[in-house]
Specification:
Elements lengths: L4 H10 L32 H27 L3 H16 L12 H14 L6 E3 L1 E4 H21 L5 H20 L5 H17 L4 H10 L19 H15 L5 H12 L8 E2 L13 E2 L4 H11 L2 H12 L14 H7 L16 E6 L4 E6 L2 E6 L21 E5 L2 E10 L12 E3 L5 E12 L16 E2 L4 E2 L8 E14 L4 E8 L4 E8 L4 E3 L3 E3 L6 E4 L4 E5 L2 E6 L16 H4 L11 E7 L2 E7 L1
Parallel strand pairs: 19-22
Antiparallel strand pairs: 1-2, 3-4, 5-6, 6-7, 7-8, 8-9, 9-16, 10-11, 11-14, 12-13, 14-15, 15-23, 16-22, 17-20, 18-19, 20-21, 21-23
Helix pairs in contact: 2-3, 2-4, 3-4, 3-5, 4-6, 5-6, 5-7, 5-13, 6-7, 6-8, 7-8, 7-9, 9-10, 11-12
InterPro entries: TAT_signal
């Protein structure tokens, strides 16, 4: 296993005590490793990687300096800590154009002082949440990197910055070791940052708290995804955090958790570098995000394990990083991570391109991914709505059950919306293989009419409990009333064809209008004689007859057929009363096509 340079420095230079240099914090001078501008001699450096991150880190410096005066007026702890980290990395790295550039000193010092002034007496920061241990951890993790990088550089001109940053980190450590969290990934972020703090300022409280959190078990499904199913946010935070704990807290078993997640994430990749997020339980379930934030996770595990499959993804990201959709962290932020963990610059093992033809069924999240080179299909039936019939932060509620891509022509979302007691979109109650091939989604929803209360539950004063229907609330003591029900049964079967998919719909048991909504990625053009514009709905068409096409450059998706029109099947998508009551909307961005009908509804949609 490669030796982590930071642990090596702490173990050899300062032992278990906290060394100080001129009172500025942990000492790094006099270690047997090279200065921050060189190499520690234990890795065969990938010079192309270092050239890439150096050039991008240099480009970040003017952005930080331009924003610096304004950032002092209204301090954002995470943004300010990140800005200091960017300047510290450029200052310390001998290959940077800004190495030991004295114009960086005053901004670093002023930002550090502003951050110290913003810090509460208990050591915590506000970041949306008040006195927040996990949000503080995001900032303190960056500041620990600052201390490591500037400490190894060991230039007396940064002693003041190191002293201020050291005070902030020392003050925050105990509060993070005592405080709580809001989400599953917060636990692992706190563990990672406490491991960083402990490596700089050892304290028995920090490993004790790490052990308490880890004793709860990592929230990971057998297939590799974490419980939040957030493929472009929570999984990234968790991955980097667990790797930090593995290195600094001597928990090598955590490598396997990250390894499993990276392997399953390969099947969520779109040809253009986006990551499928429809199954997420976090804010990215309705967002388009990139694989770039995973870059160093794949690189670190590929180098650590000598794994050609993980190296293939890391190499693919690196080869087209400038063309990939942007992530949360610019490429230049990799410089600070490298200076903090030199093995990141190790040469990747040999590899081939990542897989481009596969069928992957993730049973943990009811997600199927089909890829045939430049054509991909996503089928999803795993929202939380079937078991927890409500919409809330932390739940998977996206009603998109199908997405289809052919090169640059992208059908981002296929949804079905019956107008049944304003219960909203169809959401599959799981996903299973269909007889005869393909994948089946199904649901059965019902709405009640409430009958008179039995005698034992009647009240003369009429003052009944306020209860949930669950469509709405009323003072009718719903739980004790007999009921009659109307039901709506839906079945959707998706089968792959030679050049696309066929989607068979069967909706019955009640007679209602419905609409199939196809939402496309902006940038293309519709053609087809059966398309008519929907009045009052900008960018929306109804396919009344025949087939239509959506074309982007040389790529085209053909879809249909249309299914008529008329008063009995209006071009309306009803998101449900849970949304409309709050003036909410589930209308996707981009141009839409509606195919309408009325139950009993037996219809086959072709996408090719």
């Amino acid at each position: 296993m490669p030796i982590d340079r930071r642990r090596f420095v702490v173990g050899t230079a300062v032992g278990t005590a906290v060394g100080t240099a001129a009172g500025v914090g942990p000492a790094f001078a006099g270690t047997p490793t090279a200065a921050a501008g060189g190499t520690d001699g234990r890795v065969d450096e990938d010079r192309a990687f270092l050239d890439l991150i150096t050039a991008d880190a240099d480009r970040l410096v003017p952005e930080v300096l331009a924003a610096h005066p304004g950032d002092l007026v209204s301090v954002n702890a995470r943004r300010t800590a990140r800005a200091i980290r960017r300047l510290a990395a450029a200052w310390s790295w001998q290959r940077s154009a800004h190495h030991h550039d004295e114009t960086l000193l005053t901004p670093m010092a002023e930002m550090a002082e502003a951050l110290a002034d913003y810090q509460h007496d208990d050591g915590l920061f506000d970041q949306g949440n008040l006195h927040s241990p996990p949000d503080t951890a995001f900032s303190v993790g960056d500041l620990c990197v600052v201390l490591t990088v500037l400490g190894e550089d060991d230039d007396r001109r940064t002693e003041g910055v190191r002293a201020t940053v050291g005070r902030i980190v020392r003050a925050a450590g105990p509060a993070m070791a005592e405080g709580g969290v809001h989400t599953p990934n917060h636990r692992w972020k706190l563990c990672g940052v406490l491991a960083q703090v402990n490596a700089l300022f050892p304290d028995r409280r920090y490993p004790r708290r790490i052990d308490q959190w880890l004793a709860e078990g990592i929230d990971q499904y057998p297939g590799g995804q974490y419980s939040e199913r957030s493929a472009t946010y929570a999984s990234v935070v968790t991955g980097y955090s667990l790797l930090t704990v593995a290195r600094l807290a001597d928990r090598p078993e955590l490598y396997e958790n990250v390894r499993r997640n990276l392997r399953v994430t390969r099947y969520l990749l779109e040809p253009n570098g986006e990551v499928v997020t429809v199954h997420s339980r976090r804010q990215d379930q309705n967002a388009r995000r990139s694989i770039v934030d995973y870059w160093l996770l794949y690189r670190e595990l590929a180098v650590h394990d000598g794994d050609p499959e993980l190296a293939a993804v890391a190499r693919d990201i690196e080869s087209r990083i400038a063309q990939l959709p942007g992530g949360e962290d610019p490429t230049g932020d990799a410089l600070a991570r490298y200076l903090n963990h030199r093995e990141l610059a190790g040469r990747l093992p040999g590899s081939q391109r990542p897989p481009t033809r596969y069928e992957h069924h993730d049973t943990d999240t009811a997600l199927v991914r089909l890829r045939r080179d430049g054509r991909t299909v996503t089928i999803f039936g795993g929202t939380d709505f079937a078991e927890i019939p409500t919409f809330a932060s932390g739940l998977s509620t996206n009603p998109t059950f199908l997405a289809f891509r052919k090169g640059a022509a992208i059908l981002d979302s296929v949804r079905l919306a019956p107008q049944f007691f304003s219960l909203g979109h169809f959401r599959g109650e799981g996903l299973e293989r269909a007889s005869g091939g393909g994948w089946r989604l199904r649901s059965r929803v019902r709405a009640a009419y409430h009958l008179p209360l039995p005698p034992q539950h009647r009240r003369r004063d009429g003052d009944y409990a306020l209860t949930d229907d669950p469509r709405f609330w009323s003072a009718l003591d719903f739980p004790h009333r007999p009921k009659t029900y109307l039901t709506l049964r839906t079945e959707v079967v998706v089968r792959e064809t030679g050049d696309g998919v066929e989607v068979s719909f069967r909706v019955d048991e009640s007679e209602v209008p419905l609409a199939i909504e196809l939402a496309f990625r902006p940038g293309g053009e519709f053609t087809g004689p059966g398309l008519t514009a929907v009045q009052g709905q900008a960018g929306t068409h109804q396919l009344v007859s025949g087939e239509a096409s959506y074309t982007v450059g040389d790529d085209r998706i053909t879809f249909g057929p249309g299914n008529g029109s008329g008063p009995g099947q209006p071009p309306v998508v009803d998101p449900g009363e849970r949304y409309t009551w709050l003036s909410g909307s589930l209308t996707p961005t981009g141009p839409r096509v509606l195919i309408t009908g009325r139950t009993p509804f037996h219809y086959r949609l072709t996408l090719r």
